Amino acid sequence: MRELAIDTNSATAVIQGFGNVGSYAALELQQFGLKVIAISDHTGALYDKNGLDIPALMRHAGLHGSIAGFSNELHFDPDQVLTLPCDVLVPAAMERVIDARVAENLKCRVLAEGANGPTTPDADLVLENVRTKSF
């Protein structure tokens, strides 16, 4: 983020997956000043342009095993989480969730892989082409 001159106090993050990796990534990013605007897990997704309350979400997920039931007002389409505009996107759930089609539609400045192999080989080619054009 420093290399890209991203101001952490005005940056946003999206986390796909809210298990051990995703929940702690969200907490750390929030502690660094980023607004975590969306998260998802196997039960659904939540979105708030003003930032989600990550400690409260962690407590809820700890008690209930997921984000389900945290808020009906913040419900969001999980299929759109990966392509939300944000500064930092953390795919932290499953492998191969970012294929070439998704990679072409990413709207993040930093892709911080938290899952094992979240991109497909075709997505890697798309991302390499984007990276070389950006610099």
Could you characterize the architecture of this molecule?
The chain has 135 residues and is α/β, with parallel strands linked by helices. The protein is 31% helix and 18% strand. It has four helices and six strands, in the order βαββαββαβα. The protein has a six-stranded mixed beta sheet with strand order 4-3-2-1-5-6, with helices on one face. The longest helix is centred in the last third of the chain and has 14 residues, at 121-134. It is globular and about 45 Å long.
pLDDT average, as an integer?
95
Give the radius of gyration: 14 Å
Question: Terminal Cα separation, in Å?
Answer: 15 Å
- Quaternary state of this entry equals single chain
Total number of strands: 6
